[in-house]
Amino acid sequence: MMNLRRATQVAGLILAIVIFAGGAGTSLQAAPARPEAVIISAYPRDFRNIDPAHIPGSPDYQIAMNVFSTLVRYKVDSLDVEPDLAERYRISPNKRVFTFFLRKGVQCHKNFGELTARDVKFSFDRILDPATRSRYRASISQIQSIEVVDNYTVRFTLSSPANSFLGSVLAFRPGFIVCQKAFEQLGANGFQFTPVGSGPYQIVGYTPRQEIVLEAHAKYFRGAPAAKRIVWRVVPDENVAALALQRGEINHMISRDVQVYKALQRDSNLRFTATPTTGWWEVMINTRRRPLDDVRVRRALAHALDRETFVRTVLEGVGQPAYSIIPPGLFGHTNDVEKYPRNVARARQLLTEAGFPNGFRINVVYEPSDYGETISLALQQWFRDIGVTLDLVKLEAGAWTARRSAGDYDLTVSGTTRFEPDQFLSEQFHSASFPPAGNLSYYDQIDNLIEAQRRALNDRERTTIIQQIQRKVAQDVPFLPIFNPVYVTAYHRSQTGHPLNTAHWMTRFEFVKFAP
Known about the structure:
Blueprint: E1 38-43, H1 60-67, E2 72-74, E3 81-83, E4 86-91, E5 97-102, H2 117-128, E6 143-150, E7 153-158, H3 165-170, H4 180-191, E8 201-207, E9 211-216, E10 229-234, H5 238-247, E11 252-255, H6 258-264, E12 270-276, E13 279-285, H7 295-304, H8 307-314, E14 319-321, H9 344-353, E15 361-366, H10 372-384, E16 389-394, H11 397-405, E17 411-417, H12 421-429, H13 447-455, H14 459-476, E18 479-492, E19 495-496, E20 513-514
Parallel strand pairs: 1-10, 1-11, 15-16, 15-17
Antiparallel strand pairs: 2-3, 4-5, 5-7, 6-7, 8-9, 9-10, 11-18, 12-18, 13-17, 13-18, 14-18, 19-20
């Protein structure tokens, strides 16, 4: 079993574990090096939307982080930020005015011209426009105005101070800058799967339910990357992908199946990046539905969980039980929250107090890839022990996303990883983010605290508020965190430079090099 330890963040730095497999055992067939510098990757879920205003998660985020640039970006293997499209920036003493001085000569893909401050303003204005129905509108709601000072200078004025604006907004999904001219020519529908940015790669091909193809952007302002072509394939069965990796049919994959990961470790031609992440897999509770609107019922469900056994047996120790709204490794995390240990008798007592001595029937809506089905099956057994019947509603990715967006579920399972506490708080637990955005529990009891931690002018004050939020959410139980995962990428030994998966699988292919 792997020896993993959760790292503690100090000044924005997370320690992680990079595991290199080798030596033990032989592969089915030696995976050849790829001197043509093509990365062929695999992931079990189909693409849904790569437009920055609507990115729902994986694998769209992995594609987008290679297609778009941001004003500032996360440093490699760190939660700190560094300039990207901006050569430099200036923050006012009251932390309300952020001025960015852009690089000159940055070129959009497909000959759409130079990227300027107008593209920056257009990108954020579009998300802020209610007509766009962006899931990230609430995340950037503190933006009061955006001023184009000149072609290479853009100024943001916020409605209140924001310590986390750089990391939680500008370096994340809502901060991806699109090329206005391309969007106006392609339209929203055309931009869904063939968006135009200024990042290291441009999309040159898309086949629904099969693959997306990217090519290196020859005019990328940091220089064309070593990997000249990326082919990202949809392979629903991770075992099939693993076999393809060993046979050399692909040379990179994201692995979420512990058994697959451990089997691949026996192949001396493969290398791995396995990183404790700043995220959790969770069950969101629709608190608008009876009987889930009663906190006693939600606490009963929490007492039914057996996280420790799940991590020990299902995950074989590759992860750790999760309890808090802010994962270990992120600023402000505390483990001093109500944990609701497995206690069937206490759960049944709470249900009786709530008027359900004989239990009730609810559903869980989930998408089967990743851990969706595994968690749902575990929930069904745990809840059966306390007299609650759980109906499993398994949907493919598109239908699952649509149903979640409509709020049509009792419970739903998903995985969330973020770089900064406000991303969890604003997207997952602020009332402004009710579906179709990310607050799938319809929880509205900490809006003032979320806004207060944004305004805090020093780390000590902000930490105090964030810890108060964690304790409040744990008491109210709008969601059930299950475990903090370890994210694994596997690739051929000829590849070097893959960043750590500190928050999500960091498939930033511009950093990949190839051994001779």
